[in-house]
Design goal:
heterodimer; A: twelve-stranded mixed β-sheet; ten-stranded mixed β-sheet; 8 helices; 20% helix; B: 251 residues; alpha/beta; Rossmann fold; six-stranded mixed β-sheet; 10 strands
Chain lengths: 445, 251
């Protein structure tokens, strides 16, 4: 029976951690009990597959059950040059690496339950208590669920003035339930990134599931990542979603960007059966700049679903969004994005562009850009496109002697190379994204 | 010096645009011998560019009569990429932008796909492109620049010419390669193509409005096209007289 591990108040309260985190869970659980799951009749869930979600098929992972021998990390060498590494198994952090040099500069890479290795164990908890929920207050039923069943919080904090060139890598690995009779695992990874004044860093989050064993996964992953970028900081954030073909992901990425700070986000969505990412970025002080990029490619019956908010709450702020994706076979994608220029955010500049390639007749992409402008002296534009490979582009390549199938492949590769080239961070980050996208394209070409 | 008699032969070629009954080409006869430049001049709307696209096999046109062959091979029976592999090159009037596809990658694919040539590696193609680009006084960044993206009109035309030097086709159809080029760039482009006629016997079908191109790229034969037909033919003098009198006599 699933009841022993269902989404109950008891299961929520059995999770550990400091008093403030327990209180947050209780509050989230009360909201969850009152509101429950959202439905597709709500505008923000239109075009989604939320009505298909059967929570009874999932159960939360009991605390302290995940285990991982660090020597057998399936992709421990994925980032030989990483500045720090966090390994989270079923949203329970099992392994953290942080060099002494960074630790001595006050960099915190750790978790609320375990603290950073070799550092101040209380630091991660204090940072988390201060910032938890500030960038991503729960917006809907899934946010409530994530808040009620979050196990641990990964904390990455870069102190004022510290510059780190190599990426800090956080790997979230989900596995099949060890007790299949209890249903599939539902996991709630939570990450908090705080970039201090004048700091500079790159954080890479990888969400993947276990193809290594014989058992495929049917995970429900509900990650929440909050990014707080202080004045004049440059924070680059890269997320790569490479989940298994039966997994579901409903993610929330939210950032607040301070005075003259710059936040760049690059999201890559390749895996999962249904994967939704809600991206909110709020410019909270003059001079803040946000750049949001995404690349996605769905095959089979996959669906990738993006909701974005470029929120300008201060004057002289800038945001630039460029999302590109393709759908093949019977795959679907949704892009729905809003630029909001609040009253008083004069001289703000915002761009939004979404381009979709539809590679099969059975595939479908929706693109819904929106503007909500409450101020006059601003500059905004949006563009969206949905369609097959441009026949003129194919003709140009064929006129050079490239056969039609290869011409289409070249155009599609180029379509993605164009967006991957904009990924921030060191070249190794772009190389990783490029390698994953290329591997996915090989399924089709 | 020529590598054999690659000849473009077009006879009685008729074609229309899909969805329209009107013929744009109404029986065109043209021959381009190896190593020679044949010019086609004529007013806007005479069918000059259509001829280039019909020879290359652009979707959207239907051939309604006549023949076209390269080196004896029936062009009209082949898909576009096979026409290119058989030695036909079209320098596009409006080269298409293909974001994210670098020139060297595209040409390496094109050359590797040719039967009997074997795989041409991208570095080998890049080296050939670099030499070609340097000889035309262009910036080395063009070697792996995404196809035509954000290039000026003149850069696009030079970029087309560079591809002739690397692909070494038997016949190059130049669709208004002189448009968008300033005089200095025109001289460089024309000199490279003239050199190719001697270097490997490239045959050129030069579609243009102006005699200016032909002062740098001398033609042995000049045809005047109007209403989808060749209405006059002659030597270089014909181009000169058109420069003075215009096309009124042919409208």
């Amino acid at each position: 029976m699933a009841t022993a591990r269902a989404f109950t108040a008891y299961a929520s309260s059995a999770l550990g951690g400091p008093e403030w985190l327990r209180r947050r869970r209780e509050e989230a659980f009360s909201r969850w009990e009152a509101a429950g799951l959202p439905s597709q009749s709500e505008e923000v869930w239109r075009y989604s597959r939320i009505d298909e979600l059967d929570l009874d098929a999932y159960s939360p992972v009991p605390p302290g059950t995940a285990a991982m021998d660090p020597d057998t990390l399936p992709c421990g060498d994925a980032f030989p040059g990483s500045a720090a590494l966090v390994w989270s198994h079923d949203a329970q952090v099992t392994h953290v690496e942080l060099g002494d040099e960074l630790a001595s500069k006050g960099v915190v890479v750790g978790t609320v339950l375990a603290g950073p290795p070799g550092g101040n164990a209380a630091a991660a908890g204090e940072i988390a208590e201060e910032h938890y929920g500030t960038a991503a207050p729960p917006r809907d039923g899934l946010g409530n669920l994530a808040g009620a069943f979050v196990d641990d919080v990964v904390v990455v904090s870069i102190p004022d003035g510290v510059v780190i060139d190599s990426p800090i890598v956080v790997v979230h690995w989900g596995s099949a339930s060890q007790e299949p009779s209890l249903g599939s695992n539902a996991i709630f990874p939570r990450t908090l990134i705080v970039a201090g004044t004048n700091s500079k860093a790159t954080v890479v989050e990888i969400s993947t599931s276990a193809p290594w064993g014989a058992v495929g996964t049917r995970l429900l992953v509900v990650p929440v990542t909050e990014v707080v970028v202080a004045a004049n900081a440059h924070l680059d954030y890269v997320s790569l979603q490479d989940l298994g073909p039966h997994d579901w992901q409903i993610a929330h990425q939210a950032s607040t960007v301070g005075r003259d700070a710059r936040f760049t986000s690059f999201t890559t969505a390749l895996g999962a059966d249904y994967a939704r990412v809600r991206t909110d970025s709020k410019a909270v002080a003059p001079g803040a700049e946000t750049r949001l990029f995404a690349a996605y490619f769905g095959t089979g019956t996959q669906m990738h679903d993006f909701r974005t908010l470029q929120d300008h709450a201060a004057p002289h702020t800038k945001s630039d969004l460029y999302f590109k994706g393709a759908v093949a076979d019977e795959a679907r994608s949704v892009y729905s994005g809003l630029i909001r220029i609040c009253k008083g955010a004069v001289r703000s500049v915002a761009f939004q562009e979404n381009r979709n390639l539809v590679l099969s007749e059975g595939a479908h992409a929706d693109s819904v850009p929106n503007l909500d402008i409450q101020e006059n002296d601003v500059r905004c534009s949006h563009a969206s496109a949905v369609g097959p490979v441009d026949p003129d582009q194919r003709y140009y390549l064929e006129s050079r002697g490239v056969p039609p199938e290869e011409a289409e492949q070249l155009v599609v590769e180029g379509f993605f190379d164009d967006i991957v080239a904009r990924a921030p961070g060191v070249p190794a980050v772009r190389a990783m994204i490029h390698q994953k996208v290329t591997a996915k394209l090989k399924e089709k070409f | 010096m020529t590598l054999g008699g690659a000849v473009l032969q077009v006879a009685g070629l008729r074609a229309r645009v899909d969805g329209s009954d009107a013929e744009i080409l109404r029986g065109v006869d043209i021959e381009v011998p190896a190593g020679q430049v044949v010019a086609i001049m004529g007013p806007n709307g005479s069918g000059k560019s259509t001829l280039g696209h019909v020879l290359m096999g652009r979707p959207g046109y239907t051939v309604t009569g006549g023949t076209a062959s390269i080196n004896g091979e029936d062009l009209l029976a082949m898909p576009t990429y096979r026409r290119a592999q058989a030695g036909l090159f079209l320098a596009h009037q409006y080269p298409i932008e293909v974001p994210g596809v670098p020139l060297d990658r595209a040409l390496a694919r094109a050359m590797s796909a040719r039967a009997g040539v074997g795989v041409r590696s991208r570095p080998a193609v890049a080296a050939a492109l670099a030499a070609e680009i340097a000889s035309m006084g262009m910036d080395p960044r063009f070697v792996d620049w995404p196809l035509n993206v954000d290039l000026s009109g003149g850069e696009k035309k030079r970029n087309e010419t560079v591809q002739i030097g690397v692909l070494k086709p038997r016949i190059a159809v130049l669709d208004e390669i002189d448009s968008g080029l300033d005089v200095d760039a025109l001289a460089v482009v024309a000199a490279r193509i003239a050199e190719a006629t001697r270097e490997w016997g490239l045959g050129v079908l030069a579609i243009t409005h102006y005699n200016r191109l032909l002062t740098y790229l001398p033609a042995t034969t000049v045809h005047v096209m109007a209403h989808g037909q060749i209405v006059d033919s002659g030597g270089p003098d014909l181009a000169l007289s058109l420069e003075e009198s215009g096309y009124q006599g042919y409208e």
